[in-house]
Amino acid sequence: MDKLYMILLCLMIVPILICIKYSRKIKSDVASSIVKCLIFTIVTILSNGLSAFSGNETFSYIMEALYRFSFDLMLIYVLQYSQQYTRVFHEVSPFKKGCFIIAYLDGILLFLNIIFHNVFTIETVRFPNFDMYHVADKSIIFYFHYVFAYGLVFCIIASFIIKIIQIPDFYRKKYLPILVLMCVITVSKFICGILEFPIDVSLPFFVCAAILICYLTLYRSPRELVDKTLSIVVTEMNNAVICFDINNECVYANERALKIFNSSLDSISGISEDVQGWIKEHDINNSASLEWSGQTIIDNKTYYFDIEYRRLFDKKNEYIGFFLNLIDNTEKHIAFEKEKYLATHDTLTGLYNKNYFAQKTSEILNENPDKEWLLICSNIKDFKLVNDLFGLEKGNEVLKMEADLLKAQCGEGSVYGRTGGDKFAICIPKEEFKEQDFMDAIQTMGHAFNNDLYHFHIYVGVYEITDRNEEVSIMCDKANLAIKALGENYDKSIAYYNDTIFHDTVAEKQLVGDFDKALAEKQFCMYLQPQVTSEGKLLGAEALVRWQHPKRGLIFPGDFIEVFEKTGLIYRLDRFVWELAVQKLAQWQKAGRDDLYISVNISTKDFYYMDVYETITSLVETYKIIPSTLKLEITETAIMTGTAGELEMIERFRKSGFQVEIDDFGSGYSSFNTLKDMDVDVLKIDMGFLRTTRPERIERSMSIINTIISLTKTLGLSVITEGVETKEQIDKLTQMGCGIYQGYYFSKPIPVDQFEDTYL
Description:
- This protein is of the alpha/beta class.
- The strands form four sheets. Strands 13, 14, 15, 16, 17, 18, 19, 20, 21 and 22 form a ten-stranded mixed sheet that branches. A five-stranded antiparallel sheet has the order 4-3-7-6-5, sandwiched between helices. A five-stranded mixed sheet has the order 9-10-8-11-12, sandwiched between helices.
């Protein structure tokens, strides 16, 4: 019986040795702990058998001590394994060292028991017909060994129980079988101890535990976990995964694929029909792997995919089928198309935006080299007033209506877009452009939006494209230059670009660019035109400006004054001329000629850019001149259209001793109303009022002037007539009561030095 039992023990050790060999191949802390645990398990099993069936009592004492000591060490390494495997209790070095110290002390006492029998004694028992050695008398030290061992067992079982409670059911199969087997070993061990059974019936369970621990910890659980995890990942992933057999029949489709192809698990074969087109199109049978992008319509909805094809092979490298991984890019594609649309289109009108209009225009010009093309730009006059008067919503309504009308004028071969604000542009074949159609569209807009507060008007500039390589933005600039040529004209809506407009614009820009340098270098000079009596007696002069340009020579005011008024530079030029006039008056007055005056012009824009009253009075104070010798000329138009308190400022000037003149009286539309609303000292009548192509109307014009002069006398005003050119004009005006004249009959505007040489 003893030999048979030992053979059984050796057979039990064989699977444990196999487990040790397998575990040593795996490089991990858990595998290392399992190896140590299994080694002491072998020692525990062998020493227990040798102790029971030994023929020598002393040898039995030695084996029993070795059995119980190795059992302690086995439990310590099982505890270490459980900590690493469950990760419930972090390994604490002092605790681990303490366990080893207690185990070694217990081992020392157990091996001393061989000599002193201070822990337990061994006696012979008969079971059932065989004599066996069995532990008899037990001291308190022996029970300390039991407490220590079962304390370790408690920690091991507790770690597994806590882990099982904490984790989802998906992971419990990794831990539950080991826990159950350890509980069986513990219970059987405890029963053997209580019943004092001579043979340890828990030893076979040690073998089962060793195999189960190796299998679950190092082999089955990791692989099963990976398989199940991959299965869940494939099932739940956002990609559509479809597997096919060697006959190109669908054998598996995850939930995403079923949802896309509107299939159920009972009808996955239907998916095969949907993807057969892809298979044939890309000839996948000749490729081990392939990637492409495709789209398909399912239930009237278009899906966009990135498709990955891979062939599948078994362990023998035999072809078993293939799978398709479909990355659904439908939402990304829609978002990209939307983003692309927003990047190329105006969000309000749906037309091309500025950059994309330029790109498409370049493309259409290059694609149609034999056609003649026009580039047309439009601009709504004073569009800002629409938003200010009627609100942003109304303004948007205007822009959308204009966009629709422009599209209606264009055929399929045209390109149109919104280039910014209220500006639109069209590139249209020349033969398709119908000017009257555009005029009708403008009138339609006018009828829709005209009211008492706002008169709707669209200006259109047309540029005939001559250089297809020219930048589209420059073409638009040229069309817009044509619009600027219309000015404030309400009678015309369409203007055509020509080189004259371009050269005028360039010249204006050059003038503006040269302004600062000209002002700093005093290239602007003052000319004086005498104001005299009918006998030629000098009373004063009007200050006029000329530009002595270093390259272009003498430039007259008609070539630059209007440019500077549009660009807002006029106030700086006017102030410069005012100072020249004041300086000259100061020189004359120091020389005793305080009977002469100089008239200076005040532009409408001056009132917007500076404090005119403060500027002029400060010049007078600086140069200490008599205020009445500096006469201020303000045009009738400036007074009637001004909004900057001109009437109040004129009154302040007169109270400060200045004389104020209305310039170009008779050229405006509200002359007599002006005289009613303001107090001035002098009226300047423009002789252009007398010019007419019908000689029979000269007398009527003279009668009107006669009435104006009579009226001014009644109002106590002085009259200056400018622009007189003949003796006949002077004689007639003198008879009417005019006493002061200015014009080419007496002198054209001349430089200051020449003026002084001639008149002073």
